[in-house]
Amino acid sequence: MPYRFEPYASESGETNSESDSGDDNPPDDRQIPLDLQRLNNVEWCTCGCCRADNLETVQECVCCRELAKVQALNGNHEGSCITQHPGFEAVCLNEYVLDVAYSYYKQNHGHLNKSPHER
């Protein structure tokens, strides 16, 4: 299940990790509407890479351009999707990197009873 461990946005637009950090409202953060109108379409997508067939829940229906932290990471690659960033493939799609990340997760949070693909 993609994005399983990402913090959910609250009504105020903060995520769980943002409220813990003491940073009340990060600059350029927009409140992301979490409504059913986003399911089964990608009219809300501004990067051009979101696909409705991959998004199963309202929480997953968020474009990378709607997140200030992702925009900051995308830096000088502005105007494109975060998946087109040069580091995305190496960090997010490399099987060996994901194995190391899962090992770290497992040490801190315990084993997930999921298939290797789902982990």
Automatic annotation (TrEMBL):
Domain P2X purinoreceptor 7 intracellular: residue ranges:
39-104
Question: What is an example of a Pfam family matching this protein?
Answer: P2RX7_C
Q: Which organism is it from?
A: Pogonophryne albipinna
Q: Which domain of life is it from?
A: Eukaryota
Q: What is this protein called?
A: P2X purinoreceptor 7 intracellular domain-containing protein
UniProt-annotated stretches for the region Disordered: 1-32
